[in-house]
Specification:
Layout (H helix, E strand, L loop, with lengths): L1 E4 L2 H17 L9 H11 L4 E8 L2 E12 L4 E5 L11 E2 L5 H11 L7 E2 L9 H7 L5 E4 L3 E5 L8 H17 L2 E5 L5 H17 L10 H16 L3 E8 L2 E10 L8 E9 L8 H15 L4 E5 L12 E3 L2 E6 L8 H9 L2
Parallel strand pairs: 4-6, 12-13
Antiparallel strand pairs: 1-2, 2-3, 3-4, 3-5, 6-15, 7-15, 8-13, 8-14, 9-10, 10-11, 11-12
Length: 344
């Protein structure tokens, strides 16, 4: 049996069951948690929710969080978090098999209110990816890869990074007291506001507004932060010099119940007044050191080919997407898939 959630009220009522599934899924990242996606939906979705609950032996064992995005040309069925989340997927218990997911997708294809399904940013181990691969008419394309590295002590970082960290950390310490502080549930809102000001000042200096100038983005994160902190997946860290913020890292971390934990570096900001101290490099190095001490195995710097990332010797982690027309009998071409994907 497959149940489709079509309203925000139904999605919010399902949140406890969703969270249980997310905790039980060893492949699920914090980007699939209700703490991340329900606030996102409130700000960026509505009203076309099409979340599918997959029931196995009478129990909900899988969840596919789709919604309808009506662009100018056609009605696209996308995953919640599309565009602003680096990994997308459903959540599944061990009892939910790939064939169950495939059958659930076929149930969605019965509905007449969407034209094309485009799930993206799926990792190779994803059950949704494997289920999409079994649908003959689905055309597969490469998504944006993410950069990963081991969580290690500073002494084990790449040579150039290690040298820079030692030099600039010594410089900062000669100027005063250096602190690396993690926000808690009580301080995360103030820390995020500090980050917003820092991030906006840096981008305005380049003549651009920056992502944190968007009121919907701010509302989303303001709602999500306390929920992420309560779920134990928020790491909001600040590098300070004499009590003044030099740089802030907004990251998510797999819960301690995961056998292989990863920390995801989502957004950083640094003080342009202290750019000479390379606060961004210092912040990331200290965050990686802290992650290693907390039993995290992997650091994921997510999407983007920014120049600074080359210094960290990152390994690319591929993702994939699909284009599936509801009434298609033949697979979409790679060219069409890329055209749809570039439109996000």
């Amino acid at each position: 049996m497959h149940e489709i959630l079509r309203s925000t009220e139904e999605l919010e009522a399902f949140a406890p069951e969703w969270e249980s599934l997310w905790k039980a899924d060893p492949q699920a990242t914090p980007f699939q948690s209700p703490a991340w996606l329900i606030p996102w939906w409130r700000e960026f979705g509505q009203p076309g929710l099409r979340c599918l609950c997959i029931h196995v032996n009478g129990n909900c064992e899988g969840f596919l969080p789709f919604y309808i995005y009506p662009n100018a040309e056609e009605r696209q069925l996308l995953l919640l978090g599309a565009g602003t989340s680096d990994y997308l997927d459903g959540v599944f218990s061990s009892l939910c098999k790939v064939e169950d997911v495939r059958q659930a997708l076929e149930r969605l294809m019965v509905d007449q209110d969407w034209d094309v399904m485009i799930p993206t940013q799926l990792r190779p181990e994803s059950k949704l990816l494997q289920a999409m691969s079994r649908l003959v008419a689905a055309g597969r394309f490469d998504g944006e890869s993410c950069g990963r590295m081991p969580a290690v002590a500073i002494a084990e970082l790449p040579r150039k990074i290690r040298s820079n960290v030692r030099y600039y950390l010594n410089r900062a310490m000669r100027e005063g007291s250096v602190e690396f502080i993690s926000a808690d549930r009580e301080t995360c809102a103030d820390t995020f506001e500090d980050m917003r000001q820092m991030h906006t000042a840096r981008w305005q200096g380049s003549g651009l507004p920056g992502v944190l100038a968007d009121e919907r983005v701010l509302a989303w994160h303001s709602q999500a932060l306390p929920l992420l902190a309560a779920a134990g997946v928020l790491q909001l860290c600040t590098l300070k010099l004499n009590g003044e913020s030099l740089a802030i890292l907004y990251s998510l971390i797999d819960p301690p119940t995961r056998s292989e934990r990863c920390q995801y570096f989502y957004l950083t900001a640094y003080s342009i007044e202290h750019a000479a101290l390379r606060p961004g490099t210092l912040l990331l190095a200290l965050a990686i050191k802290q992650a290693a001490g907390q039993g995290v195995q992997t650091i994921d710097m997510l999407r983007g080919e920014e120049e600074y990332k080359t210094l960290w010797h990152l390994e690319r982690n591929p993702t994939y997407g699909f284009v599936l027309r509801r009434d298609a009998e033949e697979p979409a071409t790679a060219g069409n898939a890329r055209r749809f994907y570039d439109g996000f």
